[in-house]
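Q: What would this chain look like folded?
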Amino acid sequence: MNEKQNDPFDELMRRALHEEADRIEPSDALPEIRARAHAQRPAARRPWLMTAGLAAVGTAAATGAFTMLNGADDTANDGDEVAGPGTTVTATGAPQSQAPSVLPASPEPSAAPTRPPSTSPSTMTAGPTDRGVTEPPVKSAVVPVYWLGQQVGAREKSAVRLYRTWAKVSGRPAEQAVRIMTSKQPNDPDYYSVWRGAALNTVTRSDGVVTVDFKELPKATLDSKLARLATQQLVYTVQGALQDNQTPVQVTQAGRSVQKLFGQVDTSAPLGRAQAAEVQALVWIDSPTEDETVEPKLTVQGVAAAYEATVNYQVTNLKTRETKKSFANTKEGQKFSPYSFQLTLSPGPWQLSVYLVSPEDGRVTDTDTKSILVK
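A: My prediction, written as structure tokens:
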């Protein structure tokens, strides 16, 4: 089994996925899923992985992404200090034993552990600023951080979607999540951020608005679609860390409103959260994470908005070229819902791909991959 299988984080992951899935009605995503099923064959983000056998698997599914942040100097690692003295921000693809203390409970699959991990809050409390009230700092919490990634299978080659990772932080959770998003690099090469160069000041609440104030904002001018998605990257990250997807986010610089973010997005008024089906990748692989070392018997978990509740998968040994492929089912179809399947692999480096295929002609559409090392 995966060396992290007994980690109580499994329930944290399932609960977070399920809570997010419950906010999306099947009717919202179905037209888009059907439209993608007719998309032209894309060039996969790791094209050498997608062999001709992929298209033969059959039914439609969605695939997604989840990453471990570590590695290079500008990549988030355990121990990286990005929030000043006494406050550390770390990012791991699968957090160990800590979880946000405000994580909402939701009904989960019966296989999930019965008790989630807990967060250890500090004795400090939230404090007021001239723009509102800051978050209370915590000793340890697990927060989502969203990134941009190429949408494989889209009609437009430049189409981009949101992908989520998890980060273990101490300090003020939303602030630390934004600092990771703006200053760190995900280990998964499929993800990136256009927020590099931004410098965060504070995240505060006041009068039904969350204000994210920057000392400096990115100077890049993007096309309208990418600018909108990058703005939602911030909204999703802040709201996810606060466990609040309803309160709009106001972006300011040095306490003043910003007219055009990335040269395109009007931020004179607070920004709401876009529907997940409009901005979020249709499939994420939650576990295993990128470059994770696993046991020969492992469980693959993720979330997908899959047509007919079916995801397809393939694993390839990069040395022997041994290949295994099959399919699995999500809990529900046509909405974001968890999926899980088990694998038994020989030792060595493997590439895991979870993907969606067209029900019309079996062409691969959305896909996500993870590199893993089997002991």
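The mean pLDDT is 75.
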